[in-house]
């Protein structure tokens, strides 16, 4: 009876990890195709910072799942205690990292307020200085989401503007409306925008825009995170039971 239970657990674990392996292979292949595709899709992704970052996240997740599934499959079907132990440790590290991230997000959630982002923006933002990571990131966010500052263009009134620009007022270039929401998109009217003409400025603050964009996905992301943690926990239990059952 014990042997039948062990055999059943072995094949269940193999099947479970085989699907993880296939999912990882698909994500890995898709990520590689997006990054090296010569037909022009790569340029579209590169023009959008969110898509560009997402492609590399997809690539990293695909590689991780591919390796995880491979270790689990080989360890289960070959009844290799060494591979099963590697699988268990790998899952445990991921589980602890995700759990730590969730706890930190819960602890520091109150710091991610409108006031916090406004204070940081006024303190560190250097307008069109693309060599500064903070400023470049903020510019990319404002261009991608067609928004301006945390609350609106008024956030930039106390931030020093570029000395060599005679047109630039409080509003930075990233807040000017474009035909296409990317760095390569043509300005509707850059000169009037920098002079303060509200018709050619994005007036809505990024805090509200981003909050509205992701609000519908918060509960889905929470449920998905709980589901992933539960699957990882069961995977660790299966791996350890199989590890202990192998003679």
Automatic annotation (TrEMBL):
CDD domains: uroplakin_I_like_LEL
GO cellular component: plasma membrane
Name under which the protein is recorded: Tetraspanin
Keyword Transmembrane helix: yes
Membrane keyword on record: yes
Gene3D superfamilies: Tetraspanin
Compartment(s): Membrane
UniProt organism field: Donacobius atricapilla
InterPro entries: Tetraspanin/Peripherin, Tetraspanin_animals, Tetraspanin_CS, Tetraspanin_EC2_sf
Sequence intervals crossing the membrane: 12-36, 56-77, 84-108, 217-243
Record PROSITE patterns: TM4_1
Assigned protein family: Belongs to the tetraspanin (TM4SF) family.
Protein topology in the membrane: Multi-pass membrane protein
């Amino acid at each position: 009876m014990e042997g039948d239970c062990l055999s059943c657990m072995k094949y269940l674990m193999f099947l479970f990890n085989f699907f993880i392996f296939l999912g990882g292979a698909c994500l890995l292949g898709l990520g590689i195709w997006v990054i090296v595709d010569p037909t022009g899709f790569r340029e579209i992704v590169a023009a959008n910072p969110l898509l560009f970052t997402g492609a590399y996240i997809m690539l990293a997740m695909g590689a991780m799942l591919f390796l995880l599934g491979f270790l689990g499959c080989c360890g289960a079907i070959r009844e290799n205690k060494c591979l099963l132990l590697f699988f268990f440790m790998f899952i445990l590290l991921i589980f602890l990292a995700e759990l730590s991230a969730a706890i930190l997000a819960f602890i520091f959630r109150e710091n991610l307020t409108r006031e916090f982002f406004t204070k940081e923006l006024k303190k560190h933002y250097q307008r069109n200085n693309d060599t500064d990571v903070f400023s470049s990131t903020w510019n990319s966010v404002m261009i991608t989401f067609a928004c301006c500052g945390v609350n609106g263009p008024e956030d930039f009134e106390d931030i020093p503007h570029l000395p060599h620009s005679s047109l630039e007022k409080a509003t930075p270039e990233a807040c000017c409306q474009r035909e296409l929401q990317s760095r390569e998109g043509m300005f509707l009217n850059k000169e009037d925008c920098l002079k303060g003409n509200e018709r050619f400025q994005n007036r809505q603050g990024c805090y509200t825009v981003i909050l509205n964009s992701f609000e519908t996905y918060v509960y889905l992301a929470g449920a998905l995170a709980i589901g992933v943690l539960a699957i990882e926990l069961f995977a660790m239990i299966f791996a350890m039971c199989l590890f202990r059952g192998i003679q």
